[in-house]
Amino acid sequence: GAGVSQSPSNKVTEKGKDVELRCDPISGHTALYWYRQSLGQGLEFLIYFQGNSAPDKSGLPSDRFSAERTGGSVSTLTIQRTQQEDSAVYLCASSLVGSGGENTEAFFGQGTRLTVV
Amino acid sequence: AQSVAQPEDQVNVAEGNPLTVKCTYSVSGNPYLFWYVQYPNRGLQFLLKYITGDNLVKGSYGFEAEFNKSQTSFHLKKPSALVSDSALYFCAVRDIGTGRRALTFGSGTRLQVQP
């Protein structure tokens, strides 16, 4: 597609349930990032993928959070046993990797607004 | 560690006046610097970046930013503000020296342009 696509756009879930958030990056972008934005706050880094591997998982807040990427394309962020503090907008971004190994600018999806009740 | 500071939560400016949104950064090596804009209920949109070369970078919608290494700043500027520029602006940095790929974002500055 033309841009980064995320689904669902909104998700309301009960505390304790598991949720899966999907990201479809721009075609050809090998780098993929997940960020979290709480109401009125900045962006909190969660995880970075290069291809199917995740060399930087340092932002995942707990072991309830996991992510995978298959085929160097679609990524899924899973939150198990959701808590109210997980409520936020989850943003996915993708970028190219330049000839020198540097990442170019990241393009963001519209986000998934997760509400845990 | 890489970090970004946006010292102003909100900037108010009258339409037609110049605007500046401030950003300072901290890295151990050399920085890649970015500005993004977020309109209500929208994702982040890329505005401009500094990688290397000229310290004055021009971007989308008439915005520009000046990289100042001695002051570790990357302030966003526009000569004449529009009401439609009202949005949330984020500065971001990546430390080239660490090899870390992820961007670190500032807390954001809300720009309000009054007619």
Rg of chain A computed from alpha carbons, rounded to a whole number of angstroms: 14 Å
For the record, give the distance between the C-alpha atoms at the N and C termini of chain A, rounded to a whole number: 33 Å
Largest sheet of chain B: 6 strands, mixed
How do the SSEs of chain B run, as a string of H and E? EEEEEEEEEEEE
Please give the number of β-strands of chain B.
Answer: 12
* Count of individual helical segments of chain B: 0
Q: Which radius of gyration of chain B do the C-alpha atoms yield?
A: 14 Å
Alpha-carbon distance between the termini of chain B?
Answer: 41 Å
Round the mean pLDDT of chain B to the nearest integer and report it: 93
Shape of chain B: globular
The stretches of 5 or more residues of chain A where confidence is low (pLDDT under 50) are none
The most extensive interface, with participating residues per chain, is: A-B, 24 and 22 residues
**Count of alpha and pi helical runs of chain A:** 0
The global form of chain A is globular
* Oligomeric organization of the protein chains: heterodimer
Strand content of chain A: over 45%
What is the helix/strand order of chain A?
EEEEEEEEEEE
- Beta-strand content bin of chain B: over 45%
Can you walk through the features of this model?
The complex is a heterodimer of chains A (117) and B (115). Chain A has 117 residues and is mainly β. Chain A has strands spanning 5-7, 10-13, 19-24, 31-37, 43-50, 53-56, 65-69, 75-79, 88-95, 107-108, 112-116. Helices cover 0% and strands 49% of the residues of chain A. In chain A, strands 2, 4, 5, 6, 9, 10 and 11 form a 7-stranded mixed beta sheet that branches. In chain A, a hairpin with a 5-residue loop joins strand 7 and strand 8. Chain A is globular, with a radius of gyration of 14 Å. Chain A starts with a strand and ends with a strand. The model of chain A has no long low-confidence stretch (mean pLDDT 91). Chain B is 0% helix and 52% strand. Chain B is built from no helices and 12 strands. Chain B has strands at 3-5, 10-14, 19-21, 24-26, 31-38, 44-50, 56-58, 64-68, 73-78, 87-95, 104-105, 109-114. In chain B, the strands form 3 sheets. In chain B, strands 2, 5, 6, 10, 11 and 12 form a 6-stranded mixed beta sheet that branches. Chain B has a 4-stranded antiparallel beta sheet with strand order 3-9-8-7, with no helix packed on it. In chain B, strand 5 and strand 6 (44-50) form a beta hairpin. The termini of chain B are far apart. At the A-B interface, strand 4, strand 5 and strand 10 of A face strand 5, strand 6 and strand 11 of B.
